[in-house]
Amino acid sequence: MIPFPEPRPLYGLDRLKGSKLSTVVIVEGEKCADAAQPFFDFPVLSWPGGSNGIGHVDWTPLKGKKPLIWPDADEPGAKAAEGRWNDRRGEVELGVAQFALAAGAEAVRVIQVPSDVAKGWDVADAIAEGWDKKRLLAFVKANLREPTTPCAPPQDPTFRRPSPLHRRTPMNLLATSRRSTTQFPRKPGALPGNVNSLPFRRRQTMTERLP
Hints:
Elements: H1 13-17, E1 23-27, H2 30-36, E2 44-45, E3 66-70, H3 75-82, E4 84-86, E5 91-93, H4 96-102, E6 109-111, H5 123-128, H6 133-142, E7 144-145, H7 170-177, H8 206-209
């Protein structure tokens, strides 16, 4: 298997170079791009590698363009289009919208897919269901929106992370483990020290016990 070159070229660059229009449609998958192209007057592009290959693509041909992103109707499709917050890694994963803007795209819009469709539904499925050019264009115009910006979720202000043990000072550790020495009142004639200050009776010898 021949690996993709780095950075990977967009799928449909020939369509982009042969068009003077600034608007382009970006879909996920070469199959969707090929199926949708006859229904749009502007270029329909995709990228190689699926949702995990976005960061390896050369997005610079979108400089000065106005991309319309048509995502798949599932969580990976939304992530590919607009990015997301990765809680396990504690970082933001960028999507097509962020890479297109970083490459110099003039404006980026996302097509809001219906909520009552099957998981993974895309533009190729819409065409298979009988959507014609007029219906596709009307759907796109009615469902354009600004892309969301992925960010970290808000933190609970009442949550306090426990401090690690190694940050405690040695004096605090000593204070928690130091023995308490209680001083008892000394009686006259008692030897210095805590033990001698305790009240006790001296043990009598055998001779002292005899009458």
